[in-house]
Amino acid sequence: MNAIVGQPVGDIPRLEEIRQSTRSAHQSVDNMVMAMAPFDNRANYARFLGLQYIFHARMKPLYDAKDLNATIPGLAKRSRFDAVCRDMDDLETEHPKDRSRLAVPQVGAERIGWLYVCEGSSLGAAFLLKAAANIGLNDGFGARHLAGHADGRGKHWREFVEQLNGLTLDDDEEAAVRKGAVDGFAFFRNLVSSSQPA
Ligand code: HEM
Known about the structure:
By secondary structure, the protein is mostly helical. It has helices at 14-21, 23-35, 42-64, 66-71, 81-91, 110-132, 153-166, 171-194, and strands spanning 2-3, 167-168. The longest helix is centred in the C-terminal third of the chain and has 24 residues, at 171-194. The protein starts with a strand and ends with a helix. Protoporphyrin IX containing FE binds at residues 15, 19, 26, 29-30, 33-34, 116-117, 120-121, 123-124, 127, 188. It comes from Thalassospira aquimaris.
Protein backbone atom coordinates (compact mmCIF):
# COMPACT_ATOMS: atom_id res chain seq x y z
CA MET A 1 0.00 0.00 0.00
CA ASN A 2 1.61 3.22 -1.11
CA ALA A 3 -0.04 6.57 -0.65
CA ILE A 4 -0.27 8.46 -3.92
CA VAL A 5 -2.68 11.21 -3.03
CA GLY A 6 -5.21 12.21 -5.64
CA GLN A 7 -4.73 9.28 -8.00
CA PRO A 8 -8.04 8.03 -9.40
CA VAL A 9 -8.68 4.31 -8.92
CA GLY A 10 -10.29 2.43 -11.81
CA ASP A 11 -13.35 3.97 -13.42
CA ILE A 12 -14.97 5.15 -10.24
CA PRO A 13 -13.14 6.42 -7.19
CA ARG A 14 -12.65 3.82 -4.48
CA LEU A 15 -14.75 5.84 -2.04
CA GLU A 16 -17.77 5.68 -4.34
CA GLU A 17 -17.42 1.93 -4.69
CA ILE A 18 -17.26 1.42 -0.94
CA ARG A 19 -20.17 3.76 -0.40
CA GLN A 20 -22.30 1.83 -2.90
CA SER A 21 -21.44 -1.54 -1.39
CA THR A 22 -22.38 -0.36 2.10
CA ARG A 23 -25.40 1.82 1.37
CA SER A 24 -27.96 -0.61 2.79
CA ALA A 25 -25.66 -1.48 5.71
CA HIS A 26 -25.52 2.20 6.62
CA GLN A 27 -29.26 2.56 6.33
CA SER A 28 -29.88 -0.29 8.71
CA VAL A 29 -27.37 1.05 11.27
CA ASP A 30 -29.01 4.48 10.97
CA ASN A 31 -32.46 2.93 11.54
CA MET A 32 -31.28 0.88 14.50
CA VAL A 33 -29.62 3.85 16.17
CA MET A 34 -32.67 6.04 15.68
CA ALA A 35 -34.84 3.26 17.12
CA MET A 36 -32.82 3.61 20.33
CA ALA A 37 -34.19 7.18 20.53
CA PRO A 38 -30.79 8.35 21.76
CA PHE A 39 -31.80 12.00 21.93
CA ASP A 40 -35.08 11.56 23.78
CA ASN A 41 -33.38 11.61 27.17
CA ARG A 42 -29.93 11.30 28.70
CA ALA A 43 -30.38 7.69 29.78
CA ASN A 44 -30.94 6.67 26.15
CA TYR A 45 -28.03 8.83 25.07
CA ALA A 46 -25.78 7.18 27.64
CA ARG A 47 -26.62 3.82 26.09
CA PHE A 48 -25.70 5.12 22.64
CA LEU A 49 -22.52 6.66 24.05
CA GLY A 50 -21.60 3.28 25.51
CA LEU A 51 -21.77 1.76 22.03
CA GLN A 52 -19.64 4.55 20.67
CA TYR A 53 -17.17 3.91 23.49
CA ILE A 54 -16.80 0.25 22.56
CA PHE A 55 -16.58 0.97 18.82
CA HIS A 56 -14.00 3.76 19.13
CA ALA A 57 -11.99 1.79 21.71
CA ARG A 58 -11.83 -1.17 19.35
CA MET A 59 -10.88 1.14 16.46
CA LYS A 60 -8.09 2.87 18.39
CA PRO A 61 -5.34 0.32 17.57
CA LEU A 62 -6.14 0.79 13.87
CA TYR A 63 -5.75 4.56 14.17
CA ASP A 64 -2.46 4.03 15.99
CA ALA A 65 -1.06 1.35 13.65
CA LYS A 66 2.38 2.39 12.38
CA ASP A 67 1.95 0.96 8.89
CA LEU A 68 -1.41 2.66 8.40
CA ASN A 69 -0.04 5.99 9.61
CA ALA A 70 2.75 5.68 7.06
CA THR A 71 0.23 5.36 4.22
CA ILE A 72 -2.44 7.62 5.72
CA PRO A 73 -0.48 10.48 7.33
CA GLY A 74 -2.15 12.03 10.36
CA LEU A 75 -4.39 9.02 10.93
CA ALA A 76 -3.66 8.68 14.65
CA LYS A 77 -4.93 12.22 15.26
CA ARG A 78 -8.29 11.35 13.74
CA SER A 79 -9.37 8.97 16.49
CA ARG A 80 -12.33 10.27 18.49
CA PHE A 81 -11.87 7.79 21.32
CA ASP A 82 -10.60 10.44 23.77
CA ALA A 83 -13.58 12.67 22.98
CA VAL A 84 -15.95 9.77 23.68
CA CYS A 85 -14.22 9.24 27.05
CA ARG A 86 -14.59 12.91 27.91
CA ASP A 87 -18.29 12.73 27.03
CA MET A 88 -18.64 9.82 29.43
CA ASP A 89 -16.85 11.80 32.12
CA ASP A 90 -19.16 14.78 31.52
CA LEU A 91 -22.19 12.57 32.00
CA GLU A 92 -20.59 10.51 34.75
CA THR A 93 -21.48 7.28 33.01
CA GLU A 94 -19.55 4.07 33.47
CA HIS A 95 -17.54 2.50 30.70
CA PRO A 96 -19.53 -0.51 29.49
CA LYS A 97 -18.08 -4.00 29.21
CA ASP A 98 -17.20 -4.97 25.66
CA ARG A 99 -19.16 -8.15 25.10
CA SER A 100 -18.82 -8.09 21.33
CA ARG A 101 -17.82 -11.43 19.89
CA LEU A 102 -16.84 -9.94 16.54
CA ALA A 103 -13.14 -9.36 16.00
CA VAL A 104 -11.63 -6.21 14.55
CA PRO A 105 -8.80 -7.10 12.12
CA GLN A 106 -5.35 -6.02 13.30
CA VAL A 107 -3.48 -6.47 10.02
CA GLY A 108 -4.11 -6.05 6.31
CA ALA A 109 -6.17 -3.82 4.02
CA GLU A 110 -9.48 -4.75 5.65
CA ARG A 111 -8.59 -2.21 8.32
CA ILE A 112 -8.96 0.57 5.75
CA GLY A 113 -12.61 -0.39 5.24
CA TRP A 114 -13.17 -0.26 9.00
CA LEU A 115 -11.55 3.18 9.08
CA TYR A 116 -13.91 4.35 6.33
CA VAL A 117 -16.86 3.34 8.52
CA CYS A 118 -15.50 5.13 11.56
CA GLU A 119 -14.41 8.28 9.72
CA GLY A 120 -17.64 8.45 7.71
CA SER A 121 -19.66 8.29 10.89
CA SER A 122 -18.31 11.78 11.68
CA LEU A 123 -20.46 13.10 8.80
CA GLY A 124 -23.76 11.82 10.12
CA ALA A 125 -22.59 13.12 13.49
CA ALA A 126 -23.44 16.66 12.33
CA PHE A 127 -27.12 15.70 12.45
CA LEU A 128 -26.73 13.85 15.72
CA LEU A 129 -25.01 16.85 17.31
CA LYS A 130 -27.99 19.04 16.46
CA ALA A 131 -30.36 16.50 17.97
CA ALA A 132 -28.17 16.30 21.09
CA ALA A 133 -29.03 19.92 21.83
CA ASN A 134 -32.54 18.65 22.74
CA ILE A 135 -31.09 17.07 25.86
CA GLY A 136 -28.71 19.91 26.69
CA LEU A 137 -25.57 18.43 25.15
CA ASN A 138 -23.17 20.14 22.81
CA ASP A 139 -19.63 19.98 21.44
CA GLY A 140 -18.26 21.24 24.76
CA PHE A 141 -20.27 18.96 27.03
CA GLY A 142 -21.41 15.38 26.58
CA ALA A 143 -21.42 15.37 22.77
CA ARG A 144 -17.80 16.29 22.08
CA HIS A 145 -17.25 13.22 19.93
CA LEU A 146 -19.99 14.39 17.54
CA ALA A 147 -18.27 17.74 16.93
CA GLY A 148 -16.77 18.64 13.59
CA HIS A 149 -13.00 18.95 13.30
CA ALA A 150 -11.50 22.40 13.94
CA ASP A 151 -10.52 22.55 10.24
CA GLY A 152 -14.15 22.00 9.26
CA ARG A 153 -16.06 18.73 9.23
CA GLY A 154 -16.32 18.54 5.42
CA LYS A 155 -12.70 19.51 4.79
CA HIS A 156 -11.41 16.97 7.31
CA TRP A 157 -13.49 14.23 5.66
CA ARG A 158 -12.43 15.20 2.14
CA GLU A 159 -8.79 14.94 3.18
CA PHE A 160 -9.42 11.38 4.34
CA VAL A 161 -11.27 10.58 1.10
CA GLU A 162 -8.32 11.86 -0.93
CA GLN A 163 -5.98 9.67 1.05
CA LEU A 164 -8.31 6.70 0.66
CA ASN A 165 -8.74 7.20 -3.07
CA GLY A 166 -5.01 7.71 -3.50
CA LEU A 167 -3.88 4.40 -2.00
CA THR A 168 -2.38 1.94 -4.44
CA LEU A 169 -3.95 -1.43 -3.75
CA ASP A 170 -3.93 -4.73 -5.62
CA ASP A 171 -7.19 -6.54 -6.40
CA ASP A 172 -7.11 -8.64 -3.24
CA GLU A 173 -6.50 -5.59 -1.08
CA GLU A 174 -9.28 -3.74 -2.90
CA ALA A 175 -11.70 -6.56 -2.06
CA ALA A 176 -10.40 -6.62 1.52
CA VAL A 177 -11.17 -2.90 1.95
CA ARG A 178 -14.77 -3.47 0.82
CA LYS A 179 -15.09 -6.47 3.13
CA GLY A 180 -13.71 -4.39 5.99
CA ALA A 181 -16.33 -1.70 5.42
CA VAL A 182 -19.16 -4.23 5.38
CA ASP A 183 -17.76 -5.90 8.51
CA GLY A 184 -17.35 -2.53 10.25
CA PHE A 185 -21.04 -1.79 9.83
CA ALA A 186 -21.92 -5.35 10.88
CA PHE A 187 -19.86 -4.82 14.04
CA PHE A 188 -21.82 -1.69 14.93
CA ARG A 189 -25.14 -3.36 14.10
CA ASN A 190 -24.20 -6.21 16.38
CA LEU A 191 -23.30 -3.77 19.14
CA VAL A 192 -26.71 -2.11 18.91
CA SER A 193 -28.65 -5.36 18.88
CA SER A 194 -26.69 -6.87 21.73
CA SER A 195 -27.26 -3.75 23.83
CA GLN A 196 -31.07 -3.92 23.66
CA PRO A 197 -32.49 -3.87 27.18
CA ALA A 198 -34.00 -7.25 28.15
C1 HEM B 1 -28.82 7.60 13.57
C2 HEM B 1 -27.60 7.44 13.23
C3 HEM B 1 -27.02 7.94 11.95
C4 HEM B 1 -27.48 8.87 11.08
C5 HEM B 1 -28.75 9.68 11.16
C6 HEM B 1 -26.50 8.99 10.02
C7 HEM B 1 -26.61 9.84 8.97
C8 HEM B 1 -25.66 10.02 8.00
C9 HEM B 1 -25.70 11.00 6.96
C10 HEM B 1 -26.84 12.00 6.76
C11 HEM B 1 -24.58 10.88 6.23
C12 HEM B 1 -24.21 11.68 4.99
C13 HEM B 1 -23.63 12.99 5.43
C14 HEM B 1 -23.11 13.83 4.30
O1 HEM B 1 -22.91 13.31 3.19
O2 HEM B 1 -22.84 15.01 4.56
C15 HEM B 1 -23.81 9.80 6.81
C16 HEM B 1 -22.62 9.37 6.32
C17 HEM B 1 -21.96 8.26 6.83
N1 HEM B 1 -22.26 7.56 7.97
FE1 HEM B 1 -23.88 7.80 9.07
N2 HEM B 1 -25.49 8.12 10.26
C18 HEM B 1 -25.77 7.46 11.44
C19 HEM B 1 -24.99 6.53 12.07
C20 HEM B 1 -23.83 6.03 11.56
C21 HEM B 1 -23.02 5.04 12.23
C22 HEM B 1 -23.32 4.46 13.61
C23 HEM B 1 -21.99 4.78 11.39
C24 HEM B 1 -20.85 3.83 11.58
C25 HEM B 1 -20.78 2.87 12.46
C26 HEM B 1 -22.14 5.61 10.22
C27 HEM B 1 -21.29 5.63 9.14
C28 HEM B 1 -21.36 6.54 8.11
C29 HEM B 1 -20.45 6.56 6.99
C30 HEM B 1 -19.28 5.61 6.75
C31 HEM B 1 -20.80 7.65 6.20
C32 HEM B 1 -20.09 8.16 4.96
C33 HEM B 1 -20.81 7.72 3.72
C34 HEM B 1 -20.07 8.26 2.51
O3 HEM B 1 -20.23 9.43 2.22
O4 HEM B 1 -19.35 7.49 1.91
N3 HEM B 1 -23.27 6.35 10.36
N4 HEM B 1 -24.49 9.31 7.90
